[in-house]
Write a structure and sequence with these properties.
This protein is an alpha/beta fold. It is about 40% helix and about 20% strand. It has one domain. The chain is built from 5 helices and 8 strands. The strands form 2 sheets. Strands 1-2-3-8-7 form a 5-stranded mixed sheet, with helices on both faces. Strand 7 and strand 8 form a beta hairpin. The longest helix is centred in the last third of the chain and has 23 residues.
Length: about 200
């Protein structure tokens, strides 16, 4: 995995942690991704394995992309079992929101979506008021939406590298969810990770 991909995933994870901590405050507003996924109306599809798909207007998911999501989650379930983690390890426990208006990250070429720069304003990752994320854990099961991961629209390319990356990012976001449920201490210590401190987490 290139360093650029690790950085993108780390930034997305940090954005989730900031949202989670802010959410605990009374009256705190959810982050931009949480707001977006709550507005998604197209919630009727699932992957072949049973992952619920929420698809933002302007996006879509091909059969190959759907399978890549399933495969990534199955891979992390296998690693979780080997580590002694026992939940949530069913595809039906997960929801994946596919976000439209995605673009390829300039350096890595990985499909990504925009997040407000926030604390990254003025840093090397600031691309003009926003950063790019390859994936993000948005909600955990104590929220009404369940264990929800946001991934960028892949534009139906079905290129081998794109599908492999989609599978990998689904697995990496699954790591955060599994740790949240099974190893909260490790979840806390890995939820924010900088350069050189990326996935896999277990």
């Amino acid at each position: 995995m290139t360093q650029a991909i690790v950085i993108i995933i780390c930034l997305a994870t940090l954005a989730v942690v900031v949202w989670y901590l802010r959410k605990k405050k009374i009256g705190a507003k959810p982050n931009d991704t949480a707001s977006r996924v709550r507005r998604i109306k197209n919630r009727g599809r699932t992957t072949r394995g049973g992952v619920k798909l929420w698809i933002e207007d302007g996006a879509d998911v091909t059969a190959a992309e759907s399978d890549a999501i399933d495969n990534g989650l199955r891979e992390v379930f296998s690693r979780a079992l080997a580590r002694g983690y026992d939940r949530p390890l069913n595809l039906t426990d997960y929801t994946v929101a596919i976000l439209a208006d995605s673009q390829r990250a300039p350096q890595s070429g990985v499909w990504s979506y925009k997040l407000p720069a926030g604390v990254y304003a003025g840093t090397e990752w600031d691309l003009g008021g926003y950063i790019l994320a390859a994936g993000e854990t948005v909600f955990y099961s104590n929220d009404p939406e369940g264990n929800l991961i946001a991934l960028p629209y892949h534009h139906g390319t079905n290129m081998i590298d794109d599908l492999a990356n989609l599978s990998r990012v689904a697995a990496y976001e699954g790591e955060h969810i599994i740790l949240f449920h099974c190893d909260y201490t490790l979840w806390q210590s890995t939820a924010v990770h900088g350069v050189g401190q990326g996935h896999p987490l277990f």
